[in-house]
Amino acid sequence: MSLADELLLFAGIYAFALMVTVYLHKREGRESPEKARRYAALPWPYKALCYCGVVPLFSAIRLPGSFIFAIVAFLCVEGLCVRWYRKNGFF
Question: Which of 20, 22, 44, 48 has the least CB density, counted as fewest CB within 10 Å?
Answer without folding.
Answer: 44
